[in-house]
Amino acid sequence: MLQRIWSTLCSLKLAIILASIATLLAMGGSLIMHFNPEVFGNLDATTLSGWSRSLGKEHPGLSSWFYATGILIILLAINTACCFIDWLTVIKARWRKTGEYLIHLGFVLVVIAYFWGSLAGSRSERNRVGEGEMIPVKGMPGYYLRLDKFEPLLNERGRPIDMINTVSLLEGDKVVKRGIVKTNTPLLHDGLVVTPASFGRLTIGFELLLPSLGKGYRLTTGDAIPFADGKRLVADAFFPDAVRRNGRVFNRSDNVGQPAYLLRLLDNDETVWSGWYFLGRPQPEALQGLGFNPVVRRPVYRTVSYLTINRDPGSGVALVGGIFISLGVLFALFSFYYKRSRGDRPEIE
Amino acid sequence: MLIFAALPRFGSILIKMMESPAFQSVILKFAFAGYIGATGLYLAHAVGRKPLWLKAAFRIFLIAFGLQTLCLALRWYSAGFLPVTNLFSTQFFFSWALALTYLYFEIRYRIHATGLFVVFLTLLLLGSALPRDPALPPLIPSLDTPLFTWHIIFSFTGYALFAMAFSLGVLYLVQKKLQSDLLPPLATLRKLNEEAIFLGFCLFTLCLILGSIWAHIAWGYYFSWNIKSVWSSIVWLFYAGMCHAKFIRRWQGTGYAWLSIAGFFVVLFTYLGIGLLMQSNHPLE
Question: Hey, CA dihedral for A313, A315, A316, A320, is it positive or negative?
């Protein structure tokens, strides 16, 4: 009985049946996937488990082929693993098939790695980070990524050709890895992979002309404008597109819409007023008579980098699987030509 | 002495001339004409059975392939990367890979007119590429890696072998029906078909492995759910199944020939259908 079960599990016919059904399902499913981008369009930005819990669950009709194909691939991997184990028991007699069976082993490892990564990994796209800023790493509590330096590389026409990010991975306060992240050069650490996605610029304030003082000032968060009698106006925050709701001020977007500063008026280092000032709108009463009548000259920008931060604990196993498959292919090719050169091509029953 | 002093200057002028698109275009047209001539002679030999025609056909094909290889080398040298990033250059490279596949089988097994479908495909691809703009497009930074180069080489040589398998599969079915002495025996056709599938599968596997490693370092994941990647996996699964099917008696011979034909349609859809009709991460235009 056990022998029969084992034979079925190792069966070549079973492999062909499983591969055929999986192929047909994937063919049809890929078209469903292509014509339903609202369900499947974001699959690369999330893990399979995350997708299954959200969009996959919401659209069971459209995603059923997906799960069925997944199950068939798992069954095919089990069948392949059994086939490999079965070969190991007769390796002395069938060592010339090493190449083919290395491909089997590699395939099993890749399938295990992919499902492991899908269940235990995490994906996070377009993480915005400016120079000197730190962001937490999704899926790795206690870990942070700091952008130490960012330098976009432009060609002679001004088109971006690369993004050089010098980043540090920190565990608490301790730097565990530091490196350059640019195109085709990720930061790799324990299944974590950080790649550059794009970069952009954020408006962080304005250069203002104050006719009453006859001077221009750069006003971004932390900057101050000195006035007569020891008074100073400090910018504590800046929103490029601010809106006031229920007495509170929010930032709607990073595009310049209705810019606003959170200002603090100091008189000999003592705060006498603090509040929001929406550029272009009437001044708050406390600022009238101060001589703060700004004319906007130009925006002040800060370059930010967008990074993809994925974690796939199975990626190492997948790489080992890929190496086994590649070695298997090379062995199989060698064995094929060796056999052909000897005219050794047995008919197979 | 004067001649030696002039040599480097002459060399640089020669390289400059060879790098010019006009020169490359002329070579390519000669190569195309050579392929047409060779095809005509192969067909003539299939009917007339004159050994001289066969010899001439093979030599002309070899010269045409040499010219196309020279053009590919010049384009590669001029660009500084393997130029396979738009429809012209993929058609050009695919046709080169098909011609290489034909040469492999011709030199190894003397298949002559048996591989003519592949030569027709070479002509079709090269012929439809010729009117297109051959200008070398700038390289997208993410493609600037040897992983991309080898991914492409293995992909197109794999596709070319699958095309050869299709051709051999069709001829197997024809031979089974006609029993013609113009075609090789069924056993030979079957053997060649199996070899084409096996080699194609091996090369396509390496293409997928290198593509996955490249995707991981470039985008942070080694498998994308983009339709092109899904269909590439389908191609792999299909031919992996075929590599197993040859061990089952029922699928040997006729069944295998039909599978080779079906497989090539899967390849065609993966290369052309998706690249031209659908939005994917492997656009052809």
Answer: positive
Strand order of the β-sheet with A260-267 is A224-226, A231-239, A260-267, A270-278
Could you give the CA distance from residue A111 to residue A101 in angstroms, rounded to a whole number?
Answer: 15
A27 touches chain B (CB under 8 A): yes
Q: Which range has the worst mean pLDDT, A137-146, B20-29, B60-69? A: B20-29
- Taking only the tens place, the pLDDT of each residue in A250-283 is 999 888 999 999 999 999 889 999 999 999 888 8
Chain A to chain B Cβ contacts (< 8 Å): 107
**Amino acid identity for residue B260 in this structure:** S
By CA distance, what is B222's nearest residue in A?
A315
Q: Which residues of B touch A308 (CB under 8 A)?
A: 219-220
Contact criterion met (CB < 8 Å) for A26 and B237: yes
Nearest to B82 by CA among B144, B24, B23, B5: B144
From B220's Cα to the closest Cα of chain A, the distance in A is: 6
Contacts of B214 in chain A (CB under 8 A): 184
Write the CA distances from A84 to A97, A339, B201, B206, integer angstroms.
11, 22, 19, 21
The residue ranges of every structural domain in chain B are 140-285
- Whether residue B222 lies within 8 A of chain A, CB to CB, comes out as yes
Counting every residue, how long is chain B?
285
DSSP A174: E
- Residues B251, B252, B255: CA angle, nearest 5 degrees: 50
A312-341: pLDDT as tens digits: 999 999 999 999 999 999 999 999 988 888
Distance (Å, whole) CA A206 – CA A298 = 6
Instruction: Decide if A176 touches B, using CB distance below 8 A.
Output: no
B197: closest CA among B134, B247, B150? B247
Distance CA A45, CA A37 (A): 13
pTM: 0.87
List residues bridging with B163 in a β-sheet: none
